[in-house]
Amino acid sequence: MAITDINISDTLETSAPSIKYEGNEGPKSPEEQQQMMMAQLEEEYAKYVFEMEEQGLEPMSLQKFIEQAM
Q1: Which residue positions in the chain have pLDDT lower than 50?
Q2: Angle of CA points 23, 29, 31, to nearest 5°
Q3: CA geometry: angle 64, 67, 68, nearest 5 deg
Q4: Which intervals carry biased composition (Basic and acidic residues) (predicted)?
Q5: CA distances, 70 to each of 35, 36, 39, 47, 62 (Å)
Q6: How many C-beta atoms surround the C-beta of residue 60 within 10 A?
Q7: 52-61: per-residue pLDDT in tens?
């Protein structure tokens, strides 16, 4: 016995309202994600530089810091 009466649809029928993203809540483009990541890395690097200078040590370059973070 085979099941032959199958109806497959690409949409899901529900009584729930559709979801709409507003403002900056929704998914980010790869470029936006990279900009946010770089801003965060630069902020962390500034903290690192401050701490190293407070201890009288020479901080590594931003490029080296980023390489180690990745």
Answers
A1: none
A2: 120
A3: 90
A4: 22-31
A5: 15, 15, 14, 17, 12
A6: 15
A7: 999 999 999 9
